[in-house]
Design brief:
Blueprint (H helix, E strand, L loop, with lengths): L20 E6 H15 L3 E5 L1 H6 L2 H10 L4 E4 L2 H9 L6 E3 L8 H6 L3 E4 L2 H14 L3 E6 L14 H13 L3 E7 L11 H18 L7 E3 L3 H6 L7 E2 L23 E6 L2 E5 L4 E2 L5 E2 L4 E6 L16 E4 L2 E6 L7 E4 L12 E5 L9 H8 L3 H6 L6 E5 L6
Parallel strand pairs: 1-19, 2-3, 2-9, 3-4, 4-5, 5-6, 6-7, 7-8
Antiparallel strand pairs: 1-10, 10-18, 11-14, 12-13, 14-17, 15-16, 16-17
Helix pairs in contact: 1-3, 6-7
Amino acid sequence: MTLVEGNTPRARTAHDRDPQTEAVIDLEAITHNVGILRKFAGDAALMAVIKADGYNHGAAAVAQTALAAGARELGVTTIPEALTLRNAGITAPILTWLNGVDADFVSALDADIEIGVSSPRHLESVVAAARELGRPATVALKVDTGLNRNGVSRADWPQMLTDLGAAHRAGSVRLRSVFSHLAHSDEPHNRVIDLQKQRLIDAVADVRGLDLDPEVVHLSNSAAVLTRPDLRFDMVRPGIALYGLSPVPELGDFGLRPAMTLQARVLLVKKVKAGDGVSYGHTWIAPRDTTVALLPLGYADGLPRILSGRFEVQLGGARRQAVGRICMDQVLVDLGPDGGGVREGDVAIFFGDGSRGEPHAQTWADALDTIHYEIVTGIRGRTVRTFRGGEDPK
Ligand SMILES: *Cc1c(COP(=O)(O)O)cnc(C)c1O
């Protein structure tokens, strides 16, 4: 077991030797999940998507773990995210795909980052950066096949091809890959998926018609990797499944293991009398003499206030109901009249992989009518990230 400091949700400091509130990241779970995804990917390579600081699990540690487990490349949204990984000593191929036309492409190229281009305007900026540096830019052509978000639109496509051909002949770019992103990957039978697949195939044919020969074509995010083997192309691009959360919960967990456990130590145990109101607004009145435990996690740390009274934690060997309002910094749970043997300093688990009887990030997502992606990326504030398992992510 290793315990290493992270940078967010909050930097671990000397004062955090025994943090009150932790997001514990199990790197062995990441290794396990990469193994599962590689099986589903077959011969296709695996790009680990570690945008948003590794879905809030710690990008550098996740990257190192995923690469050691056989991931070949890394995917992030922005150039600063990519540069942070380079600064952490990661030398694997990194693709960045969401940058403005005025982004710092010079720094990206200088750090050997592959750049996703979504318009002729982007390409022009990247070409200018390549000229400034005096070497070709490695680019990935992002094709909008129907999501209508990032990616080259159909209106821009003819111009893009012309400009790409010219940039290639001038030696300013090397087109390494062509990729796209799905609109309905969590509905494996949706026909838009087939339409997007065909449009990507057509786009690749157009590019090959220019005498450009991209090495890699990729389309699949987590849901597609697990449900649509026909979309693998040369590489797959999973994010959420690396972290152990099923992208299609109604189809099961695919053997994935959630990597993040959110937990806090009990700060205070106290008795309340029947009829006593608890927390702001006294929205909960003790129906009987009981005992409550105070936990140091609040809405400023990513526990949504709208979950007040609507979630449970695993504590003292049982599920305990949250009671009263969630505050900025703290929340209470009902331990029952006998206190259940819970003592100050005991660990309450808000969500995790379920192996200790605790709820799952999906439980919160269901209660909030959202997706678990938003739950794990929303943990913040005073929560300290610690790593367990795997090698020291230096
Ligand atoms: C976030 C993202 C992914 C990963 O998606 P998951 O659903 O988390 O697997 C893949 N590709 C692109 C372009 C993305 O933005």
